[in-house]
Amino acid sequence: MKNLIALILFVTLLSCTDNTIMQPYDKAQKPAGINIKGYSKPAVLQLRLNGSPIAINGNTSYTDKIETQVNFVVDEGEVNELGIYNHETGTQIAKYKVTYDNIDQYKNLYFFNLPGIFLQTYAVKPQVNLGKVGFEFIFPNLGEFSGSSLENVKGILKRENGVVLAEFENIGKSNFTSVKIYNFFSATEPVYLELYKPGTTEPYTGSALIKIKIKQDIGANMIVLQETMENGAVTVKGEIDVADYL
Question: PROSITE patterns attached here (predicted)?
Fold first, then answer.
């Protein structure tokens, strides 16, 4: 009898042990809160979390200013995809893979969507007094065609006669520079931006001077610089003015 009881206890204990081994432990979790500030014009966008549309003020598609906070829970080992889509075409514009380990990188998410360009930054039109001209620059595709490994370039803004209007020590990929302001002098005369390696007078790529003709408007100008390839040569354009959309 004692042997029988011992056998039953052993089998019961073994069964409990097996069940414990097969039961997964509770996964570690973190709360995720992503502050989203974006802008899109004229395209209508939709944000999706793991494929499900995100509603903002009751709407699942939106344009112009786009602001919301997305809250969810992230399990360890889990990947959550936050995507930005063109609502009319269904085309994915950008995606962000949010995990337990990288959630701190996504506390704030900024974007600016215009025809032909998507900026992962938040743009605010600077205040420029009447009779003044203000310039800001951003260079999101720096190195795409030139192969440059620089994260920033120096810019010198000049009149056609060579007079310096403003200097920008660090024009980078991710954020607009601080605004530089000067007195408005002409509605027709263009200005020129020369680009150099930071802290030098050497062209940031190649050996020839890089000089970009830029239209100046009275008030704020927020110019997006873009490397392009034309006839086998790298050129830089400054044709998109974000201030026109704000």
Answer: PROKAR_LIPOPROTEIN (PS51257)
